[in-house]
């Protein structure tokens, strides 16, 4: 392993210095909670009887308190393909816990919604807020305080970040994240995208679109493109909360089941009843979050994680800002090409060497902190190994030292590009971010007049009416967290891609989010401050000139006098009383800006 890169040192030290007060307060809280310990031994006999009444053969272990009790927090539902495999996890986890001399209980469930299903629908306005709701739901599940450690079952977009926030709140407990894995490969993502574009232009009908979508999303497991869900899985491995090599093992396979069994017994061994007590607050350190950011950049991961990582870290008293991401992106090479950044899916990526190969290469080049604690033990080097079932026994062997497909995965020293997949844009409109890993260099600069819209449906209407005939920067505002919960605007991707394919210079500027699968069109997203919070984006008008320069990291307003104008307003529509959106009015009132995690908790989680 090489000496740590000086930029990693600098950024990590700056984060630690910035966070010293909040981190100290947080760790003091965790130490106090650890001293008190699980309450089940202090509960009244009536309270314990309530807690153990349905536990059958495990009652004796629980009453005696000699074995660890594992609390399972599950995001199971069978509407999400990624979460359907969790149906059978509790039984396997309980069996594994018994064999280790302990016990396990389902502490509670948390909601889990799919951004893919709610794209462009009313429910999408609940998506970002579901992250904080998941954190609160998990806190309720663990609040009975009868557990020595916790296992979190979650995969998709807001679920993992919400569960990490909860795990930080219970940071005195050891915790492990047990993934479900990706679905097997179906219709290629590139073929699916082509059919979507053909449908958008009317050249194929809905029957062809439906056939393509069903062939792409065809079975249990995570969607196979590299969006937010699979970026979450990468992060949990880079940050030491997954077992090494476990993120992209397909559901229902013997190896997947063996990893779940081993993970259960491993987290029980980390409890205060064992000899290697490792609470999650000692795993999720400043170095772990820097490692997560490095993984995000090296893989060209989802832009959603810029928001989520800030919120996740803040729950443990660690204060990240967009400058940290930007500076790390400048020195971390882009090592992977996975759709939408390439043609391969995550199964192809895993077969080429996957996360283990990447971690090994980054460690060798001083681009990861190796001296961290993980659920597997001390040090990140073990995460360059890969799990195997040899004669029916789970073991970890040396991972590949060479990529098995250089079109998908390359070493840090011979990367696809010398900097990471995300960049920070700054200028009069405030801050924004762009995922550039899939954006060709010739599209990273655009200077053009704007067309201003207040929702993505009117953009689609203008497209169908043939109104986009020249180079255009499409501005979609009043899509931030305070206004409507910051829905993803994934429905714009086919339209904008078609315009770009016609030879036009096209870009998007928005205070909303794009999908974790943001693609080839340059998109300055998460503009902060948002239109509903005094942002200058509310003063733009049709015809104003903007310049986006991803190479220089700038988003400039070229038209004079914009700042002195009256800001536009937009009313939250009467239709906002559908799909439960009215129940989240308090969240919209309280939520912070996107560049500080778009969290309703503010600083309360670490105060």
Automatic annotation (TrEMBL):
Keyword match Glycoprotein: no
InterPro entries per UniProt: 6-phosphgluc_deHydtase, Dihydro-acid_dehy_C, DiOHA_6PGluconate_deHydtase_CS, ILV_EDD_C, ILV_EDD_N, IlvD/EDD_N
EC number: 4.2.1.12
Signal peptide: none
Cofactor comment: Binds 1 [4Fe-4S] cluster.
SUPFAM superfamilies assigned: IlvD/EDD N-terminal domain-like (SSF143975), LeuD/IlvD-like (SSF52016)
Binding residue positions for [4Fe-4S] cluster: 156, 223
Enzyme class: lyase
Coiled-coil regions, chain positions: none
Limits of the Dihydroxy-acid/6-phosphogluconate dehydratase N-terminal domain: 70-381
Key words of the record: 4Fe-4S, Carbohydrate metabolism, Gluconate utilization, Iron, Iron-sulfur, Lyase, Metal-binding
GO BP terms: D-gluconate metabolic process; Entner-Doudoroff pathway through 6-phosphogluconate
Pathway: Carbohydrate metabolism; Entner-Doudoroff pathway
Molecular function as annotated in GO: 4 iron, 4 sulfur cluster binding; metal ion binding; phosphogluconate dehydratase activity
Keyword Endoplasmic reticulum: no
Pfam families linked: ILV_EDD_C, ILVD_EDD_N
Family note: Belongs to the IlvD/Edd family.
Function: Catalyzes the dehydration of 6-phospho-D-gluconate to 2-dehydro-3-deoxy-6-phospho-D-gluconate.
Protein name: Phosphogluconate dehydratase
């Amino acid at each position: 392993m090489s000496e740590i890169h000086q930029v990693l040192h600098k950024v990590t030290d700056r984060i630690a210095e910035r966070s010293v007060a909040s981190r100290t307060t947080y760790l003091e809280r965790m130490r106090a909670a650890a001293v008190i310990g699980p309450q089940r031994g202090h509960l009244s006999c009536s309270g314990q009887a309530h807690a153990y009444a349905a536990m059958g053969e495990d009652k004796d272990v629980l009453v005696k308190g000699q074995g660890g009790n594992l609390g399972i927090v599950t995001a199971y539902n069978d509407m999400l393909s990624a979460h359907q495999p969790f149906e059978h996890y509790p039984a396997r986890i309980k069996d594994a816990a018994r064999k280790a001399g302990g016990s396990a209980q389902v502490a509670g469930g948390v909601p889990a919604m799919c951004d893919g299903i709610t794209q462009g629908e009313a429910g999408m306005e609940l998506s970002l807020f579901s992250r904080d709701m998941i954190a609160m739901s998990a806190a309720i599940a663990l609040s009975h305080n009868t557990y020595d450690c916790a296992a979190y079952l979650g995969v998709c977009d807001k679920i993992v970040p919400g569960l990490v926030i909860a795990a930080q709140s219970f940071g005195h407990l050891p915790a492990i994240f047990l993934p479900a894995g990706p679905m097997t490969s179906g219709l290629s993502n590139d073929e699916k995208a082509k059919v979507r574009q053909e449908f958008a232009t009317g050249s194929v009908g809905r029957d062809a679109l439906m056939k393509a979508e069903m062939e792409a999303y065809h079975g249990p497991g995570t969607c196979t493109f590299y969006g937010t869900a699979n970026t979450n899985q990468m992060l949990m491995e880079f940050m030491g909360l997954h077992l090494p090599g476990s993120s992209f093992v397909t559901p229902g396979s013997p190896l997947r089941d063996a990893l779940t069994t081993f993970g259960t017994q491993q987290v029980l061994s980390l409890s205060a009843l064992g000899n290697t007590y490792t609470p999650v607050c000692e795993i999720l350190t400043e170095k772990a979050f820097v490692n997560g950011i490095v993984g995000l950049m090296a893989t060209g991961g989802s832009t959603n994680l810029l928001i989520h990582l800030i919120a996740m870290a803040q729950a443990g008293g660690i204060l990240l800002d967009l400058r940290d991401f930007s500076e790390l992106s400048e020195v971390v090479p882009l090592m992977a090409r996975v759709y939408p950044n390439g043609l391969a899916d995550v199964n192809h990526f895993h077969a080429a060497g996957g996360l283990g190969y990447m971690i090994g290469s980054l460690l060798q080049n001083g681009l990861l902190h190796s001296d961290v604690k993980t659920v597997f033990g001390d040090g990140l080097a073990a995460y360059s190994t890969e799990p195997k079932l040899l004669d029916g026994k789970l073991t970890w062997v040396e991972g590949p030292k060479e990529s098995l497909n250089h079109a998908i995965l390359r070493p840090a020293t011979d990367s696809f590009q010398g900097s990471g997949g995300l960049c920070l844009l700054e200028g009069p409109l405030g801050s924004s971010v762009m995922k550039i890993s899939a954006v060709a260099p010739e599209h990273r600069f655009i200077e053009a007049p704007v067309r201003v819209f207040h929702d993505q449906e009117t953009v689609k209407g203008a497209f169908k009416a043939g109104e986009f005939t020249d180079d255009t920067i499409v501005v979609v505002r009043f899509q931030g967290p305070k206004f409507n919960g910051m829905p993803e605007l994934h429905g714009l991707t086919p339209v904008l891609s078609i315009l770009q394919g016609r030879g036009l210079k096209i870009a998007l500027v928005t205070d909303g989010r794009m999908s974790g699968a943001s693609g080839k069109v340059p998109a300055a997203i998460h503009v902060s401050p948002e239109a509903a919070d005094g942002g200058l984006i509310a003063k733009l008008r049709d015809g104003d000139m903007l310049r986006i320069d991803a190479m220089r990291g700038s988003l400039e307003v070229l038209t004079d006098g914009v700042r002195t104008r009256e800001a536009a307003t937009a009313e939250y529509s009467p239709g906002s009383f559908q799909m439960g959106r009215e129940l989240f009015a308090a969240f919209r009132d309280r939520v912070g800006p996107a560049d500080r995690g778009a969290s309703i908790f503010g600083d309360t989680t670490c105060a």
